[in-house]
Amino acid sequence: MPHDRKVVTRALLSVSDKSGLIGFAGALAQHGIELVSTGGTHKALVEAGLAARDVTDVTQFPEMMDGRVKTLHPAIHGGILAVRGNPEHQAAMLAHGIAPVDLVVVNLYPFEETVARGGSFDDCIENIDIGGPAMIRAAAKNHADVAVIVDPADYEALLAELAANAGATTLALRRRFAQKAYARTAAYDAAVSNWFSGVEGVVRPDFRAIGGRRALDLRYGENPHQQAAFYAAPERRAGVATARQLQGKQLSYNNINDTDAAYEAVAEFDPRRTAAVVIVKHANPCGVAEGASLTDAYDKALRCDPVSAFGGVVALNRTLDAEAARRIVTIFTEVIIAPDATEEAIAIVAEKKNLRLLLADGVPDPRGGGLAVRTVAGGFLAQTRDSAVVDDMDLRVVTRRVPSDAELADLRFAFRVAKHVKSNAIVYARDGATVGIGAGQMSRVDSSRIAAWKAQEAATAAGAAESFAKGSVVASDAFFPFADGLLAAAEAGATAVIQPGGSIRDDEVIRAADDAGLAMVFTGYRHFRH
Q1: DSSP E strands, 399-504
Q2: Which terminal CB of the chain, N or C, has fewer other CB atoms within 10 Å?
């Protein structure tokens, strides 16, 4: 047998997730492998008629302290960590009656699941695994001799290896499993530390760990020469990570990014208050509207920029119904995401084989906490999610003219949208719908001019006599550093403005608004989205 092959004679099994356990353990036994197990795992094996030795027989020490202490013992860790080719290690094992452990099968206490279901503080603490990570890390460190499995999905690969190598594992497999083992314990510890940070209100901890599980292999990243995968974090937030894909092609990197942007934007609109639709292209909203129905909202959103909407992502804040489904599928769309869908709507979308339909089982809370993370060279930036909502803001009128009730409703609408447009962001809106969006420009005045141009283009496409910007309101994600951006909006026909305020030239901008007859309100909140 090649030198890197290691025959498995003894396996230690301690799993909280018992899916596939009995069949796997039975297959190990057929290879003549002795089974050693703990607590509930041992009970499950014995009840299934398998010969398994309880870990307490190995340690000669009772399980105690509600199961907190059972595997933290030299008889266990010595068997895992001993280097088989080291004479001193072999002598120590012989002197202390320690038998080798060649395979460690451990999946951890369900800490992430306990947090996700809203477990109490004490319940979460009790579901922090100690012995499991210790055994996993020990086996991974000694992968030259020991194989470690942390995921039931790997049972089949291990059994295939044993069958192909007369009951032995190869170094290549052990190394692959060791890498996965360390990644699993790292992600687990990240979940624990981030939960603790949240409980204790520590916003900027000295050490920040980020962990997740691969949910999807992607064909490539933003571009074909980049490799990519989608990882799901422990946080339970309705969206792409929680969604069921009912049909369509596999999601791409850009699909996922755009779909997340669209669904977070549509979440700004409470489904109990109004139906709302967001159409996103290249991570920017190109049309947003609320309406009496999803179809009404979709038509208004599409009218804002029908050219950019082609090949876009459509997000809805209510259950997709048949009428809306029929309307959406009339143009090429990459993804539809909604909290749910009727059976009739699902059947309608199914006629478009490549169109991806995602049901997220809820709408994310725009006020919810969480982290936003971005990598930079040599590190990453982490910040709390932008959970500021315009409905909670104290809007301050700073001009002589006070906005009308209709203008005020549109101002709030436009500021909701501006929060999700790349900076510099300018949003023109009228009657609960965007009519022009300027995004991602280096100067705010350029964004304002582009948004006005978009409003004129949309009007031309619709056969309207004048620009949709006439009689609209304007939202800016940050203050106007000069009056020029605001004046560009006034020239386009806007009547009211909402912006954070806070510029050293606020007085100059306010005077310009007064001179133009505009109403303007300050929010005190900025929504940069770079």
Answers
A1: 426-429, 434-438, 473-476, 496-499
A2: C
Sheet bearing 103-107, strands edge to edge:
53-54, 34-37, 10-15, 103-107, 147-149
Calculate the CA 79 to chain-centre distance: 40
Examine the residue annotation and report whether 300 is marked as an active-site residue of this protein: no
**Best CA proximity match to 133, nearest among 184, 73, 176:** 184
Tokens describing residue 204:
């900027």
Residue 141 falls in the annotated catalytic set: yes
CA torsion 279-431-338-391 (nearest 10°) is 110
Catalytic: which of 89, 141, 249, 352?
141
Map residue 33 onto helix, strand or coil. coil
Q: What is the DSSP string of 396-410?
A: EE-SSBPPPHHHHHH
From the list 520, 479, 525, 515, the residue with the least C-alpha distance to 496 is 520
Encode the chain (530 residues) as per-residue pLDDT tens digits: 567 888 999 999 999 999 999 999 999 999 999 999 888 898 999 999 998 888 887 767 677 666 666 677 887 888 898 988 888 898 888 888 888 999 999 999 999 999 988 899 999 999 998 889 999 999 999 999 999 999 999 999 999 999 999 999 999 999 999 999 999 999 999 999 999 988 888 889 888 888 899 999 999 999 999 999 999 988 889 999 999 999 999 999 999 999 999 999 999 999 999 999 999 999 999 999 999 999 999 999 999 999 999 999 999 999 999 999 999 999 999 999 999 999 999 999 999 999 999 999 999 999 998 889 999 999 999 999 999 999 999 999 999 999 999 999 999 999 999 999 999 999 999 999 999 999 999 999 999 999 999 999 999 999 999 999 999 999 999 999 999 988 999 999 999 999 999 999 999 999 999 999 999 999 999 999 99
Say which DSSP state 356 is in. Answer: E
Distance CA 318, CA 338 (A): 6
Backbone φ and ψ of 285, nearest 5°: -65, 130
CA-to-CA distance for 310 and 296, rounded, in angstroms?
18
Give the active site residue among 18, 31, 249, 282: 282
**426/396 Cα distance (integer angstroms):** 19
Structure tokens at 51: 């010969």
Distance (Å, rounded) from C-alpha 234 to C-alpha 99? Answer: 37
Predicted TM-score of the model (pTM): 0.88
